[in-house]
Amino acid sequence: MNQHRVKDPDDSLIQDFIGLHDHQVRQDRERPGGDMEMTFLAEGDQVIERALAAGHVLSTLVIDSSRKKPLPACIPDTTTVLICEKPVIFAISGRASIRDPIGSFIRPKALSFTDEMKSAKTVVITENVTNPTNMGALFRNASALDADLVCADSASCDPLYRRSVRVSMGQVFAVKHARISNLQEGLTMLKSSGFTCVGLTPDPQAEDISGLALSEETRVALLVGAEGEGLTSLTLDKCDLRLRIPMSRNVDSLNVATAAAIALHAVREARGR
């Protein structure tokens, strides 16, 4: 590995990492057209290990100069390791020190929704899920509960945004994901390919999710919207089933990742009936 000790926050070697504590700046830099659109960041030994295990290419690794723990054995010899002093760490994170290494990876080529849905049995589709924390938690739940593919509409945030990757604990690398540029056209394609489109909604007129019954072969596209607004009426109108999660004590909605987990578990159980 090529190791460099970095003392100056203005050093060009660490510019990809500057301002991690400013979420808006990071999203602006990492979105299409930003100066970091061809990379993504992963934080923590385990998350970096999972990214590497999934075949992603690590180019640069930042570590705190006070770190005593050895780096994971899987770090490639081709990686540039930046050992950063306190002023640099503060410029990166807004803190005096960081416990976990931060890796800069080459962003992979985007997957095609039309190609990936062909082999999928359970698909999760997000509409207007703009919070990276929610997106990361959703991926972690999707991975745990057997989703084959997560598809984000054009308004949803990037699953490879730094915070999403971190919250997912690297599970964003375990579940394939693709972007749907036109959600309504995408739903039409799913239905014509034999998927049952299931929309989650708090509408009291919707069917109780506990009564869901599916055959083992049923292909399911589960649609979830942002907490509060939920799915749009246009999207709900396209769904074959509208399901609600019964809730107590006047709770009217759940976090989107939690709701998706409950629904994915219900789908898995329904196929076994």
Describe this structure in words.
It is elongated and about 60 Å long. Helix 5 (132-144) links the parallel strand 6 and strand 7 (149-153). With 273 residues, it is of the alpha/beta class. The chain contains 9 helices and 12 strands. It has helices at 23-30, 45-53, 86-93, 113-116, 132-144, 162-167, 183-192, 233-238, 256-271; strands spanning 2-6, 39-43, 58-64, 80-84, 102-106, 122-127, 149-153, 176-180, 195-200, 207-208, 219-225, 241-244. It has 2 domains: 2-106, Ribosomal protein L30/S12 (60s Ribosomal Protein L30, Chain: A), CATH 3.30.1330.30; 113-271, SPOUT methyltransferase, trefoil knot domain (Alpha/beta knot, 3-Layer(aba) Sandwich), CATH 3.40.1280.10. The protein is 29% helix and 23% strand. Helix 5 (132-144) packs parallel to helix 9.
From the structure above, extract its key features.
single chain, 273 residues, alpha/beta, 60s Ribosomal Protein L30, Chain: A, 2 domains, seven-stranded parallel beta sheet, five-stranded mixed beta sheet, 9 helices
Task: Write a brief structural summary.
By secondary structure, the chain is α/β, with parallel strands linked by helices. It is built from nine helices and twelve strands.
List the helices and strands and how they pair.
Layout: E1 2-6, H1 23-30, E2 39-43, H2 45-53, E3 58-64, E4 80-84, H3 86-93, E5 102-106, H4 113-116, E6 122-127, H5 132-144, E7 149-153, H6 162-167, E8 176-180, H7 183-192, E9 195-200, E10 207-208, E11 219-225, H8 233-238, E12 241-244, H9 256-271
